[in-house]
Amino acid sequence: MDRIRSLTALIAVVETGSFVAAAQRMHSSKAAVSRYVQELETYLGVRLLQRSTRRIALTEAGRDYYQRTRQILSDLDDADSAIGANNSRLIGHIRINAPLSFGTRYLAPLWAEFMERHPAITLDIELTDRRIDLLEEGFDLAIRIGNLADSSLVSRRLADSHAVICAAPAYIEKYGLPDTPEALSQHQVISFSYLPTGDVWHFQSATGETRTVTLKPRMHTNNGETIRAVVMAGQGIAMQPIFEICGDLQEGQLVTILPDWYGPTFGIHAVYPSRKHLSLKVKILIEYLAEKLAGTEWQAPAK
Questions:
Q1: Of 56, 117, 206, 234, which is least packed with CB atoms within 10 Å of its CB?
Q2: What angle, rounded to 10 degrees, do the helices at 108-117 and 280-293 form?
Q3: What are the pLDDT digits (tens) for 127-154?
Q4: The pTM is what?
Q5: Are the C-beta atoms of 133 and 273 separated by less than 8 Å?
Q6: Which CATH number fits the domain that encloses residue 3?
């Protein structure tokens, strides 16, 4: 049994969710990948995967084995990379999770240059606004926006942004402007489903006064682009990260409202499971993202 090949197959199946996708990643066949995993299970004398016609899941033993062996293979990649002159040739695979809109608008243009710099690294990028479990789902790195909850994860702040209350001119013409945060309760609010505070919005004025408003949104969605489309169509008011709508504000398609009140300020972070076991390739990727986003602040245009 080729243990390295078998471990690589197991990890590929877990991370892609199927034997077919794992075979594509490994440039192999489905039958070969299945054989590698079966040989590994036979060698260990334990079932690692629960297979059904609908999904593949790790067993309890498989979950622990997967996490340990994934780190071992990552360390092997680092060892291979270290052989290259001045670590210039990084080798390995990186799984990255990022929010959909931010990943599409601001990260997508960066991947090509990183791949050009490091041709022996392969990337697996998943965009979703769902909060993922890095360890459980096998991600090396996640980009998270907002205030981070205390956890065992480690983070590096890459950039800063803030939220503004916005609407389209057509909405304002039809429904008028709220003059206080509390007046938002009388308007059609479009809300982000994963907002940490739910339907409770927090505001702060330039003088330091704070307000908290509980709303009953007309619409909830877990996608920033959907919020943007509905608001631009004149169907509601939203609290949006400035990076989502800065171009729309500059072009006058959206306007900020309640200018004396500010939504939350938050960081854009690279999050990873452990500083102790941070692989060289992931460290270099974080440095690259920090380089590209350094000093970036998305601000509303001057009034």
A1: 206
A2: 130
A3: 988 888 887 787 889 999 877 765 667 8
A4: 0.69
A5: no
A6: 1.10.10.10
